[in-house]
Write a structure and sequence with these properties.
This protein is 20% helix and 23% strand. It is α+β, with helices and mostly antiparallel strands and 150 residues long. β5 and β6 form a beta hairpin.
């Protein structure tokens, strides 16, 4: 399942910081596709999700580096987020302050995601957990050992 070069203690620390985001591995479409921090919300397509963030007071702007791309990379509340959707569900992949390319997750990125979760808090009732294939995500159901007190 997981994922990058993470130690159990590191994963334990990260998952305990995050309330909504889940650490997910890649589907395998690319050999070196990185792990990601994902959250899925049953709020409709991307445009509707972004409008909800605007109503919550977040500044939402297209990322200049993604201009002309089919990717929906936007800055929400100052942080980069890649958004994908189906008609009823939007999945957000947290990027953070700067694009990270194909590198593993970092503590800085996890800390930024934990702080950014304030934008998800009002939408928590619309959360879908896991946000991706369960076998590819670290959740309390797939890795309860990471949430248990030692």
């Amino acid at each position: 399942m997981i994922l990058g070069p993470y130690k159990t203690a590191q994963l334990r620390s990260w998952v305990r910081k995050l309330r909504y985001f889940r650490i997910c591995g890649s589907f395998g479409a690319h050999f070196d596709e990185p792990d990601s921090l994902r959250v899925a919300l049953q709020v409709g397509p991307v445009e509707e999700a972004l409008e909800q963030f605007r109503r919550l007071g977040a500044e939402v702007v297209p990322d200049a580096d993604a201009a002309g791309s089919s990717l929906r990379v936007v800055r929400v509340g100052g942080k980069l987020v890649y958004a994908s959707s189906s008609p009823e569900v939007t999945v957000l992949h947290f990027i953070g302050s700067e694009p990270r390319g194909w590198s593993p997750l970092t503590t800085r990125q996890v800390d930024e995601a934990a702080a950014w979760e304030k934008w998800i808090e009002p939408l928590a009732g619309k959360l879908i957990d896991p946000p991706y294939f369960a076998e590819l995500c670290v959740t309390p159901a797939t890795r309860p050992d990471l949430w248990r007190e030692r």
